Amino acid sequence: MKNNEPLIRITKRTNTSFKSAVLVRAVAIILALIVCGIVTKLFTSDDPISIFKTVFHGAFGKGRMLVTIHDVALLLCVSLAVTPAFKMKFWNIGAEGQVLMGALSTAMCMFYLGGKIPDALLILIMIFFSIVTACVWAIIPAFFKAQWGTNETLFTLMMNYVAIQLIEYFLKVADKSGSNVVGPDLLSHGWFPQLFHTDYLLNISVVIIITIVLHIYLRQSKHGYELSVVGESENTARYIGINVKKVIIRTMALSGAICGIAGLLLVGGSSHSVDPNIAGGRGFTAIMVSWLAKFNPIYMILTSLLLVFLARGADEVSSKFGLNADFSQILTGIILFFIIGCEFFINYQVHFRSKKTAKEDK
Question: What is the pLDDT of residues 183-220, one digit of tens each?
Fold first, then answer.
């Protein structure tokens, strides 16, 4: 009797333990580093061990620890921003643009008000406008989605390019020399103060506070419950009396506000400059961080650390061995391929048709 069972079938796992998931991810990272070592070996004469040491030194070498933690904090901040929307199944691909708008508002406050008012007041104004501007930027696609059901993925993505052009315009207005960046010489006021005489510590502290607050918001608050229900089923949400339109707009306002804080930290707390690339692709990398962490703010700390560690390590390998600057992107791509790929085996199981069944088919 012929059996219609396919040769290969895939089923979703429902009982993957935390230990098993961690083990699979660890194996994937080890395999990724081995492949990176082999690829690098093809272009250099160094042994793989020295390559792995270079990766570690690039992230945690002397004088680099604080910078790495700061990069983790900024990536984490943007990841936290996209998480409420993603948990609601509102695919906000516009975090990059929302961060840019926060950065632009901060830079404009520093440029036009710097030296004219006390720095303490200037910083307060920077905080207000960076949050409000990014918040409004995020509400626009949310309103269209809630009111007319527009595609939020395309809408938020296109708004990234509008934000880039607005920064380009500001650069031409602020700096007549034609430079593609407005730097510390023009933004000399409104810099965040050092915390305990340490650079970046204030930025890191702000992100830690946001992480704790958002974790409580998503897990313990009524708003967190409502956005989860909307994400599961809008019809169910309406049935139990939740105002879906209000939840969509409110959640995106929160996402935009956190993105605005990220832009504020970038300009006021670290670079003291603004250019179209200041977000550094964090808006897109944050999507991966949030997804890999299953929308859990605490797990996002580890995911952000892993991605920043690997990216900085790849940059160091490329620099030390005199390879093309794009080579680090190749290494990063290999690593991300393994990390993303391992999620398939954590969430799904592959079944092959048994030999006994195959014989029965004959």
Answer: 899 999 999 998 888 889 999 999 999 999 999 999 99
Give the number of other CB atoms < 10 A from CB of residue 287.
20
Give the whole-angstrom CA distance, residue 78 versus residue 100: 11
Convert the pLDDT of each residue in 25-81 to its tens digit. 888 888 888 888 788 777 776 666 777 788 788 888 877 889 999 999 999 999 999
Each residue of 229-250: pLDDT tens digit? Answer: 999 999 999 999 999 999 999 9
